[in-house]
Amino acid sequence: MAARHIFPAFTALTLLFVACRDPKVTAYRVPKEKDPQMGPAAPAADANAAPAASARPPGPSGAGATMAATPVATASGAGLIWTAPGSWKAKAASAMRKGSYAVGDAGAEADLSITAFPGEVGGELANINRWRGQVSLPPLAEADVAAHVTRLNENGLAIVIIDAAGAGANAQRVLGAIVPFEGATWFFKLLGPDAVVAKARPEFLAFVKTVKAAP
Amino acid sequence: MNDSVRHFRDFIVSLKLTVVLLALGLLLVFAATLAQVDLGIWDVQENFFRSFVAIWHVGRIYLPLPGGYLVGGVLLINLIAAHVHRFKFTARKSGIFLTHLGLILLLLGELLSGLWQEDFRMRITEGETKNYAESYRVNELTITDTTDPKFDDVVAIPEALLARGEPIQSAKLPFKVVVKSYFPNSMLAMRGADSGPAVATAGIGQRVIAAPQPPTYKPDEQNVPAAFIELVAPENSVGTWLVRLPTQETPFPPQTFDYAGHSWKIALRPQRNYKPFSLTLEKFSHDVYLGTSIPKNYSSRLHLANPASHEDREVLIYMNNPLRYAGLTFYQSGYEGEHTTILQVVRNPSWQLPYLACTMMALGLVIQFCIHLVGFIGKRRRTAAVPA
Hints:
By secondary structure, chain A is an alpha+beta fold. Chain A contains four helices and ten strands; from the N terminus they run H-E-E-E-E-E-H-H-E-E-E-E-H-E.
């Protein structure tokens, strides 16, 4: 029977082609990508801007929480210390946050997170725009940055203060400080409802001035 | 000629084989049409037509069918072999010959499209430069050594390998990649007090939970795969990460870690196809008709740079005016917000073949019809001329 010969022939051919289509692990070298312009929707954001995440994850327990403070690599080595106002409630520390506080009254709380990452984390502009994205504001151009930030020099640290409030009924506001320190960048970020953050602003500014290098 | 060779030849040129193959083709189209409800158009195309063996799920029964490549391939061989063996080219049969040639070309065209066609997209934000296009549907896990200040060493593992769940080893990685779980579609939620222990031991996965979702087959929905990946070095486990495809709603940035004095980055992303040239988006314009929000024109002003050919020029892509470059066609296909353009990047070197094939078949049928018509009329005239 001819079929006797044909069957193995076609089976072999089939296997050959199937083998050719087999997915393979590939390895290659590419020049480093330039830092992307960080917009509110930049899913391909670079690793070093790891905390970037403007959207809330879906799901019931995701409500009200953001991945914004999700750190990836934390800076190690010498750190910063600070004194938090007595009215702020210290929250359980996590491996990822250097510090964590609840600011405001129960029911109308803002979240203060203190994180640190090695390097410049994408640079000042990228981080400002990342935070602006978290309160649904458009990114700033490099030239406009100066008008939107306050620069302080406290305890030998160059501190950049950003205050950005979103628009609308349930507007969120971010009040943050970026502090470069010994090759790492520290982020002090107060994120919450506009009214709560606005009320806590004087406390936050006083708090930022207490930040200093650990002895 | 020995017996088995003659048997084989008789089988391969037989008209019965043609009929069986056509019947199988019909059955395949029928099965694929029904399966499209559960699998969606892309999976059906891959699993039924661009495969050698298709598995048709009828209720709980798994029915193997010869796939499109097998049916089409054998039909192609059958057609060519029958022509070589049996058909003698004569003027009277020129129409049939041309029709069959057209059919051969059609089958070949489909095969070449399946092998050569590329359909990718490029998503570029103003000021951004990209030298790669991304797949619409195929994803890859990438583990990148970012230690070198100028270059990234990327190891890309196709999603299909993650789905198999077997440990993956690459000579370029100092650790083994173990897939702890893989979800073809997933949802994310923040980790709560009742979430149980985290599978991930590093990165974002410690703070969020990823739950499997049933895969979607609707054309306007996207599956968002996720996986828990453990990297196991010879002496210990480096850690377990949650990776997930980033979407516009839920970005999921690459996660970094240090191991063996090198800096690494792990991410799940759409499969990339690097090009020897780059495109920089200078301006994206979205014009509407005055006083309305009806779109009038989308256009992308780009800068094309190819170091190999010393090209450095500006290009404008707008609706119905694609850029054709390096065998690729770049169409303006969409946008995100005011400053991000989405270009569809298509390569199909054999796109003209179906047109040519259909023209040849139509022409062949017309010629054959005319030959018969002329013969028939001549025969009638001759019959009429002879008195009964």
